[in-house]
Amino acid sequence: MKEKQVVQEAFTEFSSHYEATVDSELNTFWGWSYQSFVDQLVNRTEILENQKILDIATGTLVIPRKILKKKIPGVHITGLDFTESMLRQGKKKISSSDFTSSISLTCADAMAIPFSRQTFDVVLMGLASHHMNIPLMLSEMKRVQKPGGLLSIIDVGTSPLWESPVVKFLMRVGAFIYFLIKENLTRARAEAGAVTNLRTPEGWQMELEAAGFQSIEIIKLSSKYRWIPEPLSIKCKNNQEE
């Protein structure tokens, strides 16, 4: 089974309990709640009136719901996810709210975003880049951003030690065993495969520069355990006309 299909199947299987599962996992690894993670991402992202926002790998719309609670006038959010069942769960959560007119949902691949060039002012992503081809993902993000647009990501980081082939192999094995016990075989395969996509801050810097982003800011956030690399907050600007 191809990696992308494995990831899609894994998220389909746990879409009904996604938020509770992520909350438990973030607490285990970083000492965070899922809500505190979302707060970090949203609070670190400058959002202005009347901006068009793209939330990639939007899942059950936790991030869009948090942004819209800030009541910034004229903001419209497009939530993109390639797992239909996640979007269905998210749609249920906004069906009785005042948010429906401010959110659009698109089922599509983040590495082939179905929007025209220079569509969005802000592109967001939380806890998803490790499941993607990062150079291709960044290329698509930049393509759909307006000049001067903001990219804001928080995700799992890694350390130079973890870049060792031996350590990376052991981490893949460890991730597989952990998620096989905690979830199921499909999730275990998806998370083990994601280990190879992790980047150090220096690795992210190189990837972002290669994609043409500027004003790059990469910050390590706090983690519960010293032996687990800190989550990374990544912000940069698309300052170039294409």
Describe this structure in words.
With 242 residues, the protein is an alpha/beta fold. The protein has nine helices and seven strands. It has helices spanning 3-13, 18-29, 34-43, 62-68, 84-94, 134-144, 165-182, 185-194, 201-211; strands at 52-56, 76-81, 103-107, 120-126, 145-155, 214-220, 232-238. It has a seven-stranded mixed sheet, with helices on both faces. Helix 3 packs across helix 4 (62-68), helix 6 packs across helix 9 and helix 7 (165-182) runs antiparallel to helix 8. The protein is globular, with a radius of gyration of 17 Å. The N and C termini lie far apart (37 Å).
Q: Could you write a compact summary of the structure shown?
A:
This protein has helices spanning 3-13, 18-29, 34-43, 62-68, 84-94, 134-144, 165-182, 185-194, 201-211; strands at 52-56, 76-81, 103-107, 120-126, 145-155, 214-220, 232-238.
Itemize the secondary structure elements and their pairings.
Elements lengths: L2 H11 L4 H12 L4 H10 L8 E5 L5 H7 L7 E6 L2 H11 L8 E5 L12 E7 L7 H11 E11 L9 H18 L2 H10 L6 H11 L2 E7 L11 E7 L4
Parallel strand pairs: 1-2, 1-4, 2-3, 4-5
Antiparallel strand pairs: 5-7, 6-7
